[in-house]
């Protein structure tokens, strides 16, 4: 597949007028007026034939201070190589009613993350009611967090389970341990060093040894955010542990807050193409990479992040590269 960053190919039909007229690149731009319900996502899809281009559209338009705030009545200039949104006048601001909605992604809360060395659990489930090995919603558990730790009745924690350590597919450096959420609990009785709690939600089976972190509502909407820098990294692991994943699956990457990554960042998933020298008359060192999909960052750690695969053109594997380009 042609690389999606090659905007020229995608824009061959991108200057399509609403009345069906196509203009040459050297002519005046096509003008489109934003309607109620339009989004940057939809505009990118309509004119560039690639909805995932919209972070670049946003970043190239200073008229859009916030990606959610495009308004009915704003004018869009469609060129052969770009889309621009005209600044709105004060009168247009008065006439406009509400900002149109932007594309978001719902995160269920069962995505998990890579637990890096700097992250320490708040505590653990030390036993359960009647010493059961597996408990679920509405069951009673006991945790090693008490008054000496500042615990009080009503405190809530998220419950996790550690899986295997994850190494980088290129450097083999250990990046962290893969963890998955099991559920949530709420403290009902507090002692000096321990507490009694009830499981308020369970995604998977919970047992002694499960570790705790401060509660955070994991089910949330993630809005796309435009790039403010170039980023390049790798898919280092998948949530499922499967070698091959696709759209809707969770992947972990080797980029985090220290590299400037934020939730909502959109990255293309790339795979290098290895040249076959037997058919080339010249030495070929590198070929353009193949774009196999895209992911949106939903959670960030210090040096790793969790990503939701939102588009897969081909099978995606651990070790595939990820890349984001700052809009120029």
Structure description:
The protein is mostly beta strands. It folds into 3 domains: 7-102, no CATH class; 113-220, Thrombin, subunit H (Beta Barrel), CATH 2.40.10.170; 224-324, Thrombin, subunit H. The chain has helices at residues 7-10, 40-48, 54-59, 90-95; strands at residues 30-33, 75-78, 83-85, 104-107, 113-115, 123-128, 140-143, 156-167, 174-190, 195-202, 211-214, 220-223, 231-238, 244-245, 250-253, 266-271, 290-300, 305-312, 316-317, 321-324. The longest helix has 9 residues, at 40-48. The model is unreliable at 1-25 (pLDDT under 50).
How many beta strands in the DSSP annotation?
20
Strand content: 35-45%
- Rg is 24 Å
Biggest beta sheet summary: 6 strands, antiparallel, barrel
Task: Please tell me the overall pLDDT.
Answer: 80
Question: What is the domain total for the residues?
Answer: 3
Spatial strand sequence of the major β-sheet:
6-7-10-9-8-11
CATH secondary-structure class of the largest domain: Mainly Beta
Structural class: mainly beta
Q: What's the multimeric state?
A: single chain
DSSP helical segment count = 4
Briefly note the CATH topology name of the largest domain: Thrombin, subunit H
Q: What overall geometry do the principal axes of the alpha carbons give?
A: globular
Helical proportion, percent range? under 10%
| Distance between the amino and carboxyl termini | 24 Å
Quickly give the CATH architecture of the largest domain: Beta Barrel
Low-confidence stretches: 1-25
Query: What is the ordering of alpha helices and beta strands?
Result: HEHHEEHEEEEEEEEEEEEEEEEE
Organism: Geobacter benzoatilyticus
Domain LysM: 30-78
Signal peptide: 1-24
Protein name: LysM peptidoglycan-binding domain-containing protein
């Amino acid at each position: 597949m042609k690389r999606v960053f090659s905007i020229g190919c995608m824009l061959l039909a991108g200057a399509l007028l609403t009345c069906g007229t196509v203009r040459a690149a050297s002519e005046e731009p096509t003008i489109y007026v934003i309607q109620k319900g339009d989004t940057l996502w939809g505009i990118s899809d309509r004119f560039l034939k690639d909805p995932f281009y919209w972070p670049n559209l946003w970043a190239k338009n200073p008229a859009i201070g916030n990606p959610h705030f495009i308004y009915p009545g704003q004018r869009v200039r469609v060129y052969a190589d770009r889309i621009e949104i005209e600044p709105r006048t004060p009168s247009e601001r008065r006439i406009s009613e509400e900002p149109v909605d932007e594309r978001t992604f719902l995160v269920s809360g069962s995505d998990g993350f890579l637990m890096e060395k700097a992250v320490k659990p708040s505590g653990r489930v030390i036993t359960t009611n009647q010493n059961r090995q597996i408990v679920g919603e509405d069951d009673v558990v006991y945790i090693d967090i008490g008054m000496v730790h500042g615990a009080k009745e009503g405190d809530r924690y998220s419950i996790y389970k550690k899986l295997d350590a994850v190494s980088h597919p290129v450097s083999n450096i250990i990046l962290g341990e893969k963890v998955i959420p099991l559920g949530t609990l709420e403290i009902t009785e507090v002692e000096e060093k321990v507490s009694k709690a009830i499981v308020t939600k369970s995604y998977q089976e919970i047992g002694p040894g499960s570790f705790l972190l401060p509660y955070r509502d994991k089910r949330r909407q993630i809005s796309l955010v435009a790039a403010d820098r170039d980023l390049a990294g790798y898919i280092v692991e998948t949530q499922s542990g499967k070698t091959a994943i696709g759209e809707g699956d969770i992947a972990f990457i080797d980029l985090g807050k220290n590299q400037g990554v934020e939730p909502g960042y959109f990255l293309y998933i790339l795979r290098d193409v290895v040249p076959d020298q037997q058919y080339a008359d010249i030495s070929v060192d590198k070929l353009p990479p193949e774009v196999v999909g895209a992911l949106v960052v939903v959670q960030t750690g210090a040096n790793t992040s969790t990503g939701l695969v939102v588009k897969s053109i081909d099978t995606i594997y651990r070790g595939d590269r990820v890349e984001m380009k700052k809009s120029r």
